[in-house]
Structure formats: structure tokens, C-alpha cells
Amino acid sequence: MKDLIFSFKRSSLFQLKTELDVFLAHNTEEKVCDFKVKGSWFQRSCVIYAGESLNIVAQMHKKDTAQSIMFGKDNFLVTVYPNVDYAFIVALIVILDKINKRPKK
Fold this sequence. Notes:
Layout: E1 6-10, E2 18-24, E3 35-40, E4 45-50, E5 56-62, H1 66-71, E6 76-80, H2 86-100
Antiparallel strand pairs: 1-2, 2-3, 3-4, 4-5, 5-6
């Protein structure tokens, strides 16, 4: 797949908090992840790390405002550290949202 940018998989099958291992396209062996996403979707927050390190490359958390409380619209604060691709981080957050969204009845 020449158009593949990255892939991901859950760090383990059973998780109380979401944890994803992210592999860039060139990392075909997938032995060590290029990025790790750890989050609590209940708290609507996550931290994205560079590989298996403790180096944070981005963070996201829900920002409560009067508008979000009154109208039920979520606002988020996303911090992306220097030299990190904003679009890549947004893509990871959107995927995390889709994984954790419960279908509306």
C-alpha cells in the first residue's frame, strides 16, 4: 500500500483506558511503535508520546465553557509541541474519537 501513512493497534485487548500503538508506514515490522496514544475517553483527554518514551508530542483535553455546558457542544484544547505535524495529531484524535464513540440509539 503505497498511500499508507500510518497504522495503529490497541496495546492490549482489554483496556480500561484507551492506549494505541501507532506505526508510521515505513515501520512494517511493528515491533516498536513510533507513537503511543494514552487517554481516558471518559474524561475526554489524551496524551500522545514519541514511541515508547515519555516525550510528549501532543495533548488534548476537554475544555468546559458556558457554551459547551448549555448547548452540549464539546470544546477541546489541543497542544501540539514544536516540529510535530498538526494534521497527523488531529487524525489520531479523530480516530480515537471514532473508536470510543458509542452509537446513538
